[in-house]
Each structure stands twice: as structure tokens, then as C-alpha cells.
From TrEMBL:
This is peptidylprolyl isomerase. It comes from Massilia soli. PANTHER family: 39 KDA FK506-BINDING NUCLEAR PROTEIN (PTHR43811:SF19), FKBP-TYPE PEPTIDYL-PROLYL CIS-TRANS ISOMERASE FKPA (PTHR43811). Keywords: Isomerase, Rotamase, Signal. The keyword Disulfide bond does not apply. The keyword Signal applies.
Length: 569
């Protein structure tokens, strides 16, 4: 009988605009970041594409700017799902009798961008709609009518914008058509990650709003596209270093990933190489400045040592394409390289989604292997072999694919025991189609110590067959289990090849989890189970018996176990 003994050491509609109105307006979709890619009209269903001009029209009326690709796709699809009218006049009529349609359209009026532009002043709003649509001031009588309707609550702002647009005639209607055509051309031109990123934030909205404001009745639409291209190229040239870059410390070959945020915060993660992924063991952090392709920070700290060590960073960058430079810490000079990560792996310019990380996260790092429980509201907690902790993930208000983190540590022996920390987290797929990872990093207020936890990219796959209802398996916990082990086989039924061991008919097997007395695949794979639970573990050779193998198990064998937790002490 071969037991698993260790023989050798071996990332709602009401949230749609609110989350990123100060960043990208409507480029937000609840709980779908993993499937969100750079959207365009061509990638939408044929039914949704019928609403593209309608959605652009509402953007032009309400914000005076073109739609971003994500917002255009989202609203087009929602209007299609509702079977809404495809022209503005019929939409204005349908709005009054369809509550679901009102919910979709009213998102414009509750957005952060709307609040930033118009606050509570209905006079300012109506004047803006007239200038957005017609390039002129409102007439006195018309303005008074709309403002009174808004002030008395007989109409929402979104409804007012639609009604004003629907009532346009002759030259006013022609001006709207020109503006919508230019807006459509602008959105189509957002065809690279750099251009999408450049068209984010209120400052970018102002630039493009001013551009669209120059469109009038006599505008040559074909010739005007050159203005669109010129504006976008200028905006891209002014981008900072923000984004995610994957690379190496060139002298050692150690993997090194850089994350630069829109406010200049720099996070660099270094660790060991695993297949297609970074397994971070520590990080550096500081706040820097981007100027004309150069990114520097004089307040970098390395949070691998405890206490953290002061350093500096100097790098050159091409926005979202490359970040190459040198870290200087103490007497060490560490050159590094980095290249922009493919959007199929991680899309920086998209809202972070709690739904992607909700549930039980198997974590690793300086605090050891443990299970982090993430709730639907972003709160999280865990008990590790070193200390317990609680905290909260909050999608970053700028709409980027990063969580802001508050992290509090209880008693124990971890570096931040009894302290609170703040930092960031992000979820990504380490390779196209891979299982998503979560990396969390934070520092205490004095920036003398940091905390790090990450989903290990070790190839271990756990699948719960039955979730138990008893006590939970935690590091150091004594458990008894029944199990059956097979050699993994792609061609065998249920992937179970030759059976090499089973506790069936015997006394349950006893083990202290995390003590290093069984293979790593068990020490890690049993965490988070509860008494009465059943789980399947697929364990790669590196977490099993390695290149040597053992009795009944050949070298470099992947294993599959069915495990049932009988008791937890």
C-alpha cells in the first residue's frame, strides 16, 4: 500500500456607470470582467448592432462625447434584449411605458460622470444638452419647460435628453446626425489597448467633448476622421506608464511582474518560475512619476526583507507595451525587463469584479498555505499557520482592473500581526485559458513591513464533490480521511488509470495537515475541506513523488485522489 507520505523534500445596472464614470463613463459591466475584451460594433450580435447609432446618440446628447467600446456594446445588447425601438423617436415614446427600459436608460443620469458634469443644477444640464446636440444655446422658452419638468420630478434627465433629441427638426436634426457619425468613427478608432486607455478619465472626456463640439452642419465627415486620428495619437503619446508588464530580473532570470497604477503607484512582484506563471514570494512598492517615456521613483521599498529596505527605480516605457529599467537597493543593482500582458490574460483597462474572486481561494506566500474566504461584498478572512486575518476588497474607483485592499491581522507570528495594512489586489489568468490567480499585497502605514498572498500556480486542481458541514481543515489541523489514489491518465475513464492505493475497508488515515508529513498535494489540497466533505485532487508530480517516484508510482507521475474527510480535530 502506498500512502501519500512524503519521501523526499520537494483575480447591477446601478453600478454600471457609478464605478467608473469618473474614468470611462459607461465602460463597466457587473460581474463579467473575465469575458470582457475590447469590444467593437463588429463583435456584437446582429440584433445588438441595430442599436449602435441609438446608443451613440444618447451618449452625444447626455455627455457630449462618443461612447467607449464597452459601454456601446453593453447598452446595445441590453436594448436588444428588451426589444427596444431602434430609433430615438420611438424610444422616447416607449420610455414612458416600460420600466425595464427606463432602468437601462436612467443609468446615464445616475453615473459618476453625470454628477461630475452637472451636479444638481438642472439649468446647467439642459444648457449642456442643447450644446451637445446642436452646438448652440437653448431657447429661453424651451429651457424653462425642461427645467421645470426636471425640478418637479415629472421627468428624469435621461428622459429629457431623449425627448429633446427626438423633437429635433431640419438643420438641428442634421447636426445631430453629423455628430453621431463622427462619434461612431471615434469609437471604431479605439482599436488598441493604448487608445482605449487614453480615452479614460474626465480629462480625456473633456478633450474629446471639445473635439466633437467642433462638428457642425458643414463638417466634411470623411475629412474629419483625420482630426480623430490626430487627437487619439496625441492622447496616446501623453499616456503614463500605467498597466501590467510581465518580465524578468535579467541577471538572475527570476520572474518579475510590474503593475503601475494611474496615480503613479508602482508594485513589482518577484518570485519563482512555474509553468506559464509567476509565483510571487515578495514585492517592491513605491510611488513614481511618468514623464515622456521615463518612469522613476525615489521612494521604492523592498518588502522581502523585514523591515523593508529602501531603494530607487528608473525605467523607460512604451504605454502598455514595455517597461524596462533598473532597481537599486542597498548595494545591489537589478536590471529588469517587462512586456505588456495580453488582454486575454489580464485587461488592465476594465473594472475589477468581486464575482471573479468570490468563494474559497487557495492561497500561498510568506504566511504559508491556507484558504481565503471571499464574500460577495468583498470582505475576506482566513486562518493561517502563522496568524488570522480579515479584510475587504473594493474595486478601484478609477475603473481599472485592480482592487483596493484593507487588511487587518490578528495575533500570531506573521510580519504584520496586530496591525492593519493597505494595498492592492488583482485577478488574472496566468496563461490564456488558465485558472485565474489572485495576488494580494499590502504595507503597514509606516511602510516598514508588508504582507503578500497569492494563488499558487502549482498545477494542483481541487474539485469539491460534496461540501461538508462539519469542522474545517486548517493548517496544523489533525484529520482522518478515507481516500483512493490512481495514476492520472488522459485516456482512462474519468482520468483514473491504475489504482495504486485505497483506504477502503481500513481504518481512516490520520494526518496533521501542513506538517510536511504527506506529499505537498495533500498538505495543500485538503485545506478548506470540512468534515463529511468529498474532494478530488489532481496532483502534479512536483507536488507528489517527483522525478524519483516510489513503490507503485513511476517517476514524474501525475496522481488523482478521491478524498473524504471523516473527522477534523
Amino acid at each position: 500500500m502506498t500512502k501519500p507520505i512524503k519521501y523526499a523534500a520537494l483575480s447591477t445596472l446601478s453600478l454600471l456607470l457609478a464605478a467608473c464614470g469618473a474614468d470611462r463613463g459607461v465602460d463597466s459591466q457587473p460581474a463579467t470582467t473575465a469575458s470582457r475584451v475590447s469590444a467593437s460594433v463588429a463583435t456584437q450580435t446582429q440584433a445588438a448592432s441595430a442599436y449602435v447609432n441609438l446608443v451613440q446618440s444618447v451618449y452625444v446628447a447626455y455627455f457630449g462625447r462618443p461612447a467607449d467600446p464597452g459601454g456601446l456594446a453593453y447598452f446595445s445588447q441590453h436594448l436588444s434584449n428588451l426589444g427596444a425601438p431602434t430609433n430615438i423617436g420611438q424610444l422616447a415614446v416607449a420610455y414612458g411605458g416600460n420600466s425595464a427600459l427606463r432602468d437601462v436608460v436612467n443609468v446615464f443620469g445616475t453615473s459618476a460622470e453625470s454628477q461630475a458634469l452637472y451636479a444638481g443644477d438642472n439649468n446647467v444640464f439642459i444648457e449642456a444638452v442643447y450644446r451637445n446636440l446642436f452646438g448652440r444655446a437653448s431657447d429661453t422658452g424651451g429651457k424653462a419647460f425642461w427645467v421645470q419638468a426636471l425640478d418637479e420630478g415629472r421627468m428624469t434627465r435621461a428622459n429629457a435628453a431623449i425627448q429633446i433629441m427626438a423633437a429635433a427638426q431640419t438643420t438641428d436634426r442634421d447636426i445631430i446626425n453629423n455628430k453621431v457619425a463622427v462619434a461612431a468613427g471615434f469609437t471604431t478608432a479605439l482599436n488598441t489597448p493604448q487608445r482605449e486607455l487614453a480615452y479614460s478619465g474626465l480629462d480625456a472626456n473633456v478633450i474629446v467633448r471639445n473635439l466633437l463640439g467642433t462638428v457642425n452642419l458643414s463638417t466634411d465627415l470623411g475629412a474629419f476622421q483625420a482630426n480623430v486620428e490626430s487627437t487619439l495619437n496625441t492622447m496616446v503619446s501623453q499616456l503614463g506608464a500605467q498597466g501590467m508588464y510581465a518580465g524578468k530580473l535579467t541577471a538572475s532570470g527570476r520572474l518579475f511582474n510590474s503593475l503601475v497604477l494611474e496615480d503613479g503607484q508602482y508594485w513589482g512582484f518577484y518570485g519563482s518560475a512555474t509553468p506559464g506563471a509567476l509565483a510571487p514570494v515578495a514585492f517592491v512598492h513605491g510611488k513614481g512619476t511618468s514623464v515622456s517615456g521615463s518612469f522613476t521613483t525615489g521612494e521604492l521599498k523592498d518588502f522581502g526583507p523585514n523591515p523593508a529596505v529602501q531603494g530607487t527605480l528608473t525605467a523607460s516605457y512604451a504605454p502598455m507595451s514595455s517597461l524596462n529599467g533598473t532597481i537599486s537597493i542597498a548595494a545591489s543593482t537589478l536590471p529588469f525587463t517587462g512586456a505588456g500582458i495580453a488582454e486575454s490574460i489580464y485587461r488592465y483597462n476594465a473594472p475589477a469584479s468581486i464575482a471573479e474572486i468570490q468563494g474559497s481561494q487557495r492561497m500561498d506566500g510568506p504566511m504559508g498555505h491556507h484558504i481565503m474566504r471571499v464574500n460577495a461584498d468583498g470582505t475576506f478572512s482566513a486562518t493561517t499557520a502563522m496568524c488570522s486575518y480579515t479584510g475587504k476588497f473594493s474595486p478601484r474607483a478609477t475603473g481599472k482592473n485592480v482592487f483596493d485592499v484593507v487588511w487587518s491581522f490578528g495575533a500570531g507570528t506573521c510580519a504584520l500581526q496586530g496591525q492593519s495594512a493597505t494595498g492592492i489586489a488583482f485577478s488574472y489568468a496566468p496563461y490564456d485559458g488558465g485558472t485565474r490567480s489572485l495576488i494580494v499585497a499590502a504595507t503597514n502605514a509606516a511602510r516598514t513591513a508588508g504582507a503578500l498572498a497569492a494563488t499558487p500556480q502549482d498545477g494542483l486542481v481541487t474539485t469539491d464533490i460534496t461540501v461538508g458541514t462539519g469542522a474545517e481543515v486548517v493548517p496544523g489541523g489533525a484529520v482522518t480521511v478515507h481516500y483512493t489514489g490512481w495514476l492520472y491518465s488522459e485516456t482512462a475513464a474519468n482520468k483514473r488509470g491504475t489504482q495504486f492505493d485505497s483506504s477502503a475497508g481500513r481504518t481512516p488515515f490520520s494526518v496533521t495537515v501542513g506538517a510536511g508529513r504527506v506529499i505537498q498535494g495533500w498538505d495543500r489540497g485538503l485545506l478548506g475541506m470540512k468534515a463529511g466533505g468529498k474532494r478530488t485532487l489532481v496532483i502534479p508530480a512536483a507536488l507528489g513523488y517527483g522525478a524519483s517516484g516510489t513503490a507503485g508510482i513511476p517517476p514524474n507521475a501525475t496522481l488523482i485522489f478521491d478524498v473524504e474527510v471523516v473527522t477534523v480535530k
